[in-house]
Amino acid sequence: MNKEEVGITVSKKEDFSEWYTQVVLKAQLADYAPVKGLIVLRPDGYAIWESIRTILDEKLKKTGHRNGFLPILIPESLLGKEKSHFAGFNPEVFWVTHSGDTEIGDRLALRPTSETLAYSLYSKWIQSWRDLPLKINFWNTALRAEIKATKPFLRTSEFLWQEGHTVHATQEEAESEVLAILEIYKKTVEEELAIPVITGKKSNKEKFVGAVYTTTMESIMPDGKALQMGTSHFLGQNFSKPFDVKFLDKNNVENYAWQTSWGVSWRLIGATIMVHGDDKGLVLPPRVAPIQIVIVPIYYSDKDAQRVNQKADEVERLLVSKGLRVHVDRRDELTPGFKYNEWELRGVPLRIEIGPKDLDKQKVTVARRHNRQKSDLPFDKIGSEIGTILQQIQDEMFTAAKKMLDDRTVTLTDYSRFKPELEKGHFIKAPWCGNATCEEKIKEETMADIRVIPFGSENSTGKCIYCGQQGSADVIFGRAY
């Protein structure tokens, strides 16, 4: 394989889609499976997911949620109990019809989402107010036949995710849960992945099928498209009634429960690749990087090799003792330049170079991946300053991503400018009257939909950008994946 084939061969600005695919494959995050629409996670890709899962799992457990497990097969009769929910998912469902050569009768769906399965069980588990709230989270996969063009991490027919399903005695408690989860999601994405998001509600047209309303967090990608990063749904009693999720209250009166569901998927990995990556490849935030620091020993003689490697081992032990994820690249057959390029392609946030001249000067060279800046760091400062440097990288990556979101969000009142601004890759903030007809017409004419009705923007003082009637909210329009 020649040098051009090893690295990224297209510019992020010139061919975003091809750039993204090359980064996924060449940075060794994932590969294509033998079945269309499916991918295989490689260790680095799975390690990023493990970081996200560990961080989120800890936050959910602190707020009283517990993990459970659900099987992957759901009977068709169960899936169809909540009619609008079933109608919304039916086109995407994979069906199992045979066991060997024998027809199984009632078709079995490969789990597209678990509301119907979970709630058929919740109706058995919940008897009285003492059983509430019930707050269970499931780390699993979901399968949805991807009709549109597939893209690793963004649109695949099977994906890793978590889905939470909670049951509450009151509407107020359930709605509080919806917002609390969305805030957990927002903090996780912004603080760990360094990606800013806009939170708010979906329009009725865009809400989760079967929900009373859906809250969402949205972000913009460098190609100008919106990406839904996670959702939290208030289900009301829309599922508790068909599934008989009821409880006896303190007065011994039977009531239908109030429910929520919520989830994020490995789509967050795709967002991280797109928002932070560059023409050299992957750029990972230190918080979720499988390897946070790579140490590259540099020597050209056996005499130098011994003392350089000894120092590299010493620095590795020091950093590992600080709880950091460190790797020493000891491959003698490769040049330092080749190693630099490979670790930059794979997105390692920080590289430490140690050569004979560094030893003589009692320092190391530190190279930051996100801006490719190099600086010297004295030996006696390594233990105290590396953590600070990693946090600086994390903060600077978020600041750059926030600037992109701000720069790409324009406020409009004139519909004639709507499509031209979309073509420039912008989010459009504009008044909307709340009428689904205007929403549908805009979608039909521009391919943009309402991504989010931001919290605090529900009382617009402007005129609807499409029909000119009094606006009910200032909303964010965008084209989506």
Summarize the structure.
With 481 residues, the chain is α+β, with helices and mostly antiparallel strands.
Detailed description of the structure:
- With 481 residues, the protein is an alpha+beta fold.
- It is 35% helix and 27% strand.
- It is built from 14 helices and 23 strands.
- It has helices at residues 3-6, 16-26, 43-62, 76-79, 83-89, 115-125, 171-192, 267-276, 302-321, 336-345, 356-360, 382-407, 418-423, 436-446; strands at 30-32, 39-41, 66-68, 73-75, 94-99, 102-110, 134-143, 158-168, 198-201, 213-220, 226-236, 246-248, 254-256, 258-265, 293-297, 326-328, 350-354, 363-368, 374-378, 409-411, 427-432, 449-454, 473-478.
- The strands form 5 sheets. The chain has an 11-stranded mixed β-sheet with strand order 3-7-8-14-11-10-9-22-23-21-20, with helices on both faces.
- β18 (363-368) and β19 form a beta hairpin.
- The protein is globular.
- The two termini are 33 Å apart.
- The model has no long low-confidence stretch (mean pLDDT 95).
